[in-house]
Amino acid sequence: MQKFNVPARGEVSGSNQAIFDNLQKALGFVPNLYAAIAWSDNALGKYLAFQGGKTSLNNKEKEAVNLVVSQVNGCRYCQSAHTVLGKMNGFTDDEVINIRKGHSSDLKLNTLVVLAQEITEQKGRVKDETLTKFFNAGYTREHLVDLIMQVSDKIAMNYLHNLTNIPIDFPIAPEL
User: Fold this and answer.
1) What is the distance between the alpha carbons of residues 10 and 27, in angstroms, rounded to a whole number?
2) Cα separation of 13 and 81, whole Å?
């Protein structure tokens, strides 16, 4: 198996070094998976702009999507990172586990989690019933598009980690 290292600041382009500096100031560290994106001169800035773009989903909804998609894709790095971020956004340990399992006790959020899971598992082909429940819960077409964008954001990171197996620099999420 190919071994991938986490590039240090001095091993990346000048533009990525500036991004590393900003991440260091904002987060207190540069997450290993973000550092791995910096192997490309362009991808880190592009990804951070995409990830930080406006969305109709609130932070809790985004983290729910991140958790269930990362579970479906078997990405231990993202399961771990988003367990931390999910708790920072108000989820309990039990809620994080339940979302990773594909459900939430919050009925509206549950429709989002179920749809995100189905989108990921079925590559965008979902049952009419799942989509109807999502809309009946109060979500709109705008939410649907933003959900798909959130799923795609997380799939990119899941695939990057699953291919590189970069060391996880967050507390390891429990196995399900």
Assistant:
1) 19
2) 25
pLDDT for 103 equals 98
At 119, list the tokens.
């989108």
Which residue reads 């990172």 in tokens? 81
DSSP string, 6-62: PPPGGGS-HHHHHHHHHHHHHHSS--HHHHHHTTSTTHHHHHHHHHTS--SS-HHHH
CB 152 within 8 Å of CB 101: no
CA Rg value for the chain: 17
Same domain, 64 and 81: yes
Distance of alpha carbon 16 from alpha carbon 82, whole angstroms: 23
Say how far apart CA 67 and CA 100 lie, in whole Å.
5
Same domain, 77 and 127: yes
Report the domain count for the chain. Answer: 2
Q: What is the pLDDT of residues 66-122, one digit of tens each?
A: 999 999 999 999 999 999 999 999 999 999 999 999 999 999 999 999 999 999 999
CA pair distance 102, 123, nearest whole angstrom: 16
- The encoded tokens of residue 96 equal 């994080």
The verdict on residue 169 lying in a domain is no
